[in-house]
Amino acid sequence: MVTALLSVEELKTYFFTRRGVAKAVDGVSFALRRGETLGLVGESGCGKSVTCLSILRLVPQPAGRIVGGKILLEGENLLEKSETEMRRIRGGKVAMIPQSPMTALDPVFSIWSQLSETIKRHQKMPGKGVWETAVTSLREVKIPSPEVRLRSYPHQLSGGMRQRVIGAMALACQASLIIADEPTTALDVTIQAQYLSLLRRMRDHLHAGMIFVTHDLGIVKRMCDRVAVMYAGKIVEEAPVKAIFQSPQHPYTMALIKSVPRLDTKVGRLASIEGHPPPLFDLPAGCAFRPRCSEATEACDVIPLRQEIEQGHWVSCHLVRGTGDKRRYANIA
Amino acid sequence: MPTLLEVKGLRKYFEVRTGGALSRKKGLVKAVDGVDFSLREGQTLSIVGESGCGKTTLCRVLLVLENPTGGTVLFKEVDAFSLKGKDLKRYRASVQPVFQDPYASLSPRLRVGAIINEPLEECGAFSKDARPVRIAAALKQVGLSENDVDRYPHEFSGGQRQRIALARALSTRPSLMILDEPVSALDVSVRANVMNLLKDLQAQYGMAYLLIAHDLATVRHMSHLIGVMYLGKMVERAPSEEFFSQPLHPYGQSLLVAAASEGYEDSAIQGEVPSPLNPPPGCCFHPRCPRAMAVCSQEAPSPKYVGADHMVACHLY
Asked: Looking at the partner chain, which of A256, A267, A276 has a beta carbon nearest the beta carbon of B188?
């Protein structure tokens, strides 16, 4: 067994507000190896982004607090780090690819000053070395004539190039964990395809682990090795990407897959999931998906335990019992 | 089904200053440059293409929010740009837009009833007494309750808000709806709901849709016809199933590959859309085209028909 790069254990991030306690992340556990991409999928408000912010220890203060659990990055618990140590980790070992890379660069600073700032903060090297690192990393992300581009300002670069500059920052600092929070939402398909392949190349080049947050199941299929499906602050199913699409076990996962139109064939009516996710202030007792679940039984009054039904395939649902009793839903995807 | 909309040689050029705010140099952006298509009642035409290809300008021209530089739009055999006064209002009542983001397209200070009342009042086709009945009916059509008229948009979820936006568009009984990314701002599980609703409404009332969406799976699910635009020109137009099984234009092909490609290969086209201020000569796609020939940089291809309804503008055919 290869040791995990990142292992999150029973992470709990709550928001304490006037309306009550919102359990945005409520007992999330997963592990990520180097060279692997984990997709984090689910509806808005299911806790995907808060999970990522918790890893970076950037949960909005003072309402948000990590109240329990462990986040082990290369064996070290990030929750025990001081703010100074965290600052060294953010942007260094852990790189964040923001939701809109188009606006993530500061318009009043040149590419060089933004890229060199990151490099100097995380690596001790002479000025010439910084320049060389910057040039190499821009070349790595296929930016033509990087020496010229370093002197440019963000507005002089096209949208695609700006995205690649963000990628170059992660490369320059030799990140071992890349967190990409919906990096391709609302991009054109062509630019999206280019960006996804850049992210994959980056991950392979650095041999880093990647957490890929998205709600686009098509992208999950293309990008990820494993998928964790989140619902109301919990991971309800986690499996290799193939298993998620071929034999999803949790009713929520199944519903999610069936509600998406497909590119390769024409489907009839889409199956929609009725109702809304429960408010995080006031979760139903038992399984949080119960009010929307078409297969709910009395057993669902109790919060289901996480069980491994096949190696690497975990489900939290009362309908699934042990390895022998695995339901098969073939040909859904 | 009779033809509802006939667009011929539609052009919309914008004059822009190039080289700084004080410069007198003028450039011409051909946002829509010779687009033809026709749309029957009950059909959905989807326009696909990258940002800046002219999709939105096309919509704005069809809504008569912009005057075209040239070309004609015949709506029910009447020239849309010759309309004035009451006739124009009636046209606007029968061609209704639905926008992408229901958090931005509904005024937070108006109650749902007032929001839906606006187009009814503006189009002038409904008397004051008839309007509340229409509003209630429109809300019912989209699966909301007539009691919702006194509520404010913030009391609704994203999917419900998009239903309100749909009710507003439906209130004037349009025969054409222009849907600009109607589901992309919604959550995955809600998208299916809204797409089903759109299809049901179309089946029931025989409206035509002009749909803009960048998610090709959504496009495939929703449409009868596909139009591919690149830098203001329509480069391919075909029945939906024909396009998805056999796209002809290299640009149409690359869009499909980009949306479907799996794994590591860089099979998608490289580069970005060139500046519309300075489009490449000949076929404007040739710098990115994997199958470009010598002729492509010299001569712009003219539209050709391959099969009855399959138009393609490319030198390969």
From this structure: A256
Residue A32 C-alpha, separation from nearest chain B C-alpha, in angstroms: 20
- Give me the total of CB pairs closer than 8 Å, taking one residue from chain A and one from chain B: 102
Residue A135 has pLDDT above 80, yes or no: yes
**Its pTM surpasses 0.80:** yes
Q: Is residue B161 part of a domain?
A: yes
Q: Is the domain of B261 the same as that of B130?
A: no
Residues 164-203 of A with CB under 8 A from B: 186, 188-194, 197, 200-201
* pLDDT tens track for A62-118: 899 999 999 999 999 999 999 999 999 998 899 998 877 778 899 999 999 999 998
Q: Which of the listed residues B151, B174, B197 is the one where a domain comes to its end?
A: B174
**CATH value at residue A77:** 3.40.50.300
Q: Which residue has the tokens 């492509």?
A: B296
Q: How many domains does chain B have?
A: 2
Strand partners, A16: A21
Domain range enclosing B309: 1-76+175-272+304-317
Q: CA torsion A132→A136→A137→A142, rounded to 10°?
A: 150
The answer to whether residues B143 and B228 belong to one domain is no
Are residues B58 and B198 located together in one domain of the fold?
yes
| Residues of chain B falling short of pLDDT 50 | 263-264
Asked if A221's CB is within 8 angstroms of B262's CB, the reply is yes
Same domain as B164, residue B19: no
Which pair of tokens denotes residue A87? 């600052």
What pLDDT, on the 0 to 100 scale, is given for residue A59? Answer: 93
Residue A303: inside a domain? yes
Q: How far is CA B90 from CA A120, A219, B72, B121, B173, in A?
A: 64, 43, 18, 11, 11
Nearest-neighbour CA in chain B from A251: distance (Å): 13
Length of chain B: 317
Of A181, A111, A177, nearest in space to A147 by CA: A111
Q: What is the pLDDT of residues B58-69, one digit of tens each?
A: 999 999 999 999
Establish if B89 belongs to a structural domain: no
Quick check: B87 contacting A, CB < 8 Å? no
Q: What angle do CA B239, B240, B244 make, to 5 degrees?
A: 120
